[in-house]
Amino acid sequence: MDKIEIASQIFQAVKLLEYKGYKLPDDLTRDIDNLKTVTYYLQALQKAIRKLYQTGNLGDYIDEHARLIDEQFTRAWNEGIRSVDLDPADMTDEEKAALAAEIDKEDDFVLDFADEILQARKAQTGAQPYLNRAQTWANRYNDIVNKAKLMADKDQKLEWVLGEAEHCESCIKLSGIVKRSSQWVKAGVQPQNAPNPNLECGGYNCKCELKPTNKPVKRGRLPRLP
């Protein structure tokens, strides 16, 4: 059993433990996470390249390469989001669409790459050039981490905080709610901004604010207003 097969079995075992509600120690979790980095991506892809060169099975290669792209890009995106203290579960629709677009764009190059390997197999010129090029594919992991980080960092978490004033029912309902900046904008709800049709007070003399916070995002819709 090679290192890739061992790593894959570890990942499957971890998923099963998490599914059953087990929480792994932090140090063990970090060690497992380290397996799923650029190095793992590189080794897994190189294994798939060798197999394609040896067997010529295009369908299996396409499936495996596409699976790796989806798995590693998703993990990289989540890593980027966590790096700015956000939870991947709170990704906005725009962020989900951006990740899907990156995956689709990368998938578009797989077939041509595989065809080059098959041509080399036919000519018996060796797989080494393609094993070397696997590093370029694997390096996209860090690129995706950075893309996610930059996008998420521009869309911070904001909490509705009551100010020093007499509060209307709308502001009281919104007090303490945490949403991403884009979610507040999309909902068209903000403090003050008189005349404000979304607030019972109309925004007049409103002292509420949307303040940056590290608190978790509140799931679901905003309360009915005003």
How is this structure best summarized?
The chain is mainly α. The protein contains nine helices and three strands.
Can you describe what's shown?
The protein has 226 residues and is mainly alpha-helical. It has two domains: 118 residues; 56 residues, no CATH class. Helices cover 61% and strands 5% of the residues. It is built from nine helices and three strands, in the order H-H-H-H-H-H-H-E-H-E-H-E. Helix 3 runs antiparallel to helix 4, helix 3 packs antiparallel against helix 7 and helix 4 runs antiparallel to helix 5. The mean pLDDT is 88.
Features of the shown structure:
single chain; 226 residues; mainly alpha; 2 domains; three-stranded antiparallel beta sheet; 9 helices; 61% helix; 5% strand
Chain-wise SSE layout:
Layout: H1 3-19, H2 26-35, H3 38-55, H4 58-82, H5 93-107, H6 110-123, H7 128-153, E1 157-161, H8 169-174, E2 178-180, H9 181-187, E3 209-212
Antiparallel strand pairs: 1-2, 1-3
Helix pairs in contact: 3-4, 3-6, 3-7, 4-5, 4-6, 4-7
SSE pattern, N- to C-terminal: HHHHHHHEHEHE
Can you give the mean pLDDT?
Answer: 88
DSSP summary, beta strand count: 3
| Broad structural category | mainly alpha
Strand order of the main beta sheet, please? 2-1-3
- Portion of residues in beta strands equals 5-15%
Described by strand count, sense and barrel closure, the largest sheet is: 3 strands, antiparallel
Shape, please? elongated
Number of DSSP helical runs: 9
Q: What's the structural domain tally?
A: 2
Helix content: 55-70%
